Predict the 3D structure of the following.
Amino acid sequence: MDLTAPIETVKGIGPKTATILNKAGLLTLRDLLYHLPREYENFHNATAISTLKPGKVTIKATVSDLKTRRMRRNLHLTEATLRDDTGALRAIWFNQPYRAKQFSDQKEYYFSGNLTFSYGRYQLSNPSAILATELDQRPSEAAIQPIYPSRGTVKSNDFKKYLKTLHNQVALVPDMIPNYAGRADALLDVHFPETLDRARSGRDYLAVEELFCLQLAARLNREANQKLTTSPITPNLASLKDFIAKLPFQLTNAQRRATWEIIQDMQSTTPMNRLLQGDVGAGKTMVAALSSFVAIQSGFQVAIMAPTEVLATQHADSLAKLFKNQIKLALLTGSTKHKPELKKHIANGTVDLVIGTHALLTDDTVFHNLGLAIIDEQHRFGVAQRQKLLAKAHTMPHLLSMTATPIPRSLQLTIFGDLAISILDELPKGRQPITTQLVSPNSTAQMWQAASQELKKGHQIFYICKKIEDSDKSELSSVKREYQHIAKLFADYKVALLHGKMKSQEKDAIMADFSAGLIDILVSTTVVEVGVDVPNATVIVIADADQYGLSQLHQLRGRVGRGKDSAYCYLINSNSDPPTRRLREIERSTDGFYLAEVDLKLRGPGEIYGSLQHGALDLRIASITDTKLVHRASRLVDDFLEKSYNIDNYPELHSAIRKYQRLTTLN
């Protein structure tokens, strides 16, 4: 079976369907085989309607009174009455109008779904169905039915049909990993399970396969980085101690520890490849400043690259105050004036520290002796951009990446095995607490009253929305609608709108005005999630807070509490339902590392790692929290490396790990 064959070679997939699947990332037969069921319907052991209890149930029944009606916002509700010898039950399907043509009142079907009590009666919600004769004739094959995630207009039943045509070929799929047999059986068990245990076992096999690729890539990255050489940076410890002693504040123990780890790395002839992670406000910029000071004192230039002009300017202003006139500092952004003259100074070495945006990457930006590259909010830059910055040095520079997203230890060990990590897990003295409060959408008056008191004190407010535009398909608050509402509510104050579809210059101008105190309330999408430092902002309101992950809520909350005054975070639910565990956790804790661990358990690694690497992890099967599978994959990686297998002899494996040759790789 040629797993690289295009998906349109599957019987039933024509050009139109292939286009839809291609847009969803399903290009080949391998992609189709690894499009796994999200769950299974178990049609074994049907229960009589009269004995049903709320929860997951299976019944065998006939269908009558089938009808579909259009509801508001172009949604459809399909209803039917299901009957067996013991009673009748209402079934409903939301936005599945095709169900109205699926059933015949002359036949019996098996239905599997959730039985709930609503509006004074029991009902079966969105049940799956299979013709009774089909199951009764082939019980071992049909009793466990996979449910696949839809892709565009391609639904679960379509995927079942396509995969059924490949059944015989799947048995011929070769193993991908040496000494890890059973791939074909695993795929058969996942797509055509005879029991739920077989389905789980098959999925575990494929999860280990996925984790193997991830961990092997990390190990190969690390080996490649260790073969590189660079110029060591020898610290002047006396000068550094004198500089620290004159600081107007005291470093935290975590800052001291991280700085020492970086100094030790930079003394090596192997390029440093270190990730500095710290909770919001933990003082990463100060560690970057001390690292820069050491490199500059040793005769090297330093480049700090930030994702936005506002953030680069903030860094330049704060570091200029910190260093005073001890080093020569320059800011290089798209709006910097006299660029040719500045770039001459960078090229001849009269500038020690260059802080900039993507403007650092232009071909005419040349460094005299770049020894340390620092990338702030490193997830905002692509591989090519980072490599272009590193290429500015005559020899490979030391690299320090920084992120404000706390990473759980299980992710550190599994995903970031190819780089060193320094953690800032303490907040500097003087940081004010942030009081977090959950708010029902029907009870916002008290919140706005408290927020208006902050405005009267001269403080500022962030108001965060999930969406930009209103939509018929969603009731979530849009930033444009909320902007209009808040502008009327606070007519005596300056209210501004910010969202991702604005031009970069316009966004930077608005943020600059907000930072300067010219805007009282900023109504924005999550474009302000990281990096923005406005000490005068003491209130952040997050609408539809239940739609965010914990890590993102924590990042957004960190936009306030950065000054000398107490700060407040209000989380508005999208409905009047009881708050989720996620919201309860963030209400009671401000510890980003604790919240990251909770988020990992609740949502998996996508939320955390996705915010770090723009989804490069893309684990479709495995869970980082399953330590048994992680360890099983680790042992396979050890075996692969110990036996010195040549990965070039395994083209599919080589292709599979390529996506994990991530931003952490230096070369």
The chain has a mean pLDDT of 86. The domain at 40-147 is CATH 2.40.50.140 (OB fold (Dihydrolipoamide Acetyltransferase, E2P)). The chain is about 35% helix and 20% strand.
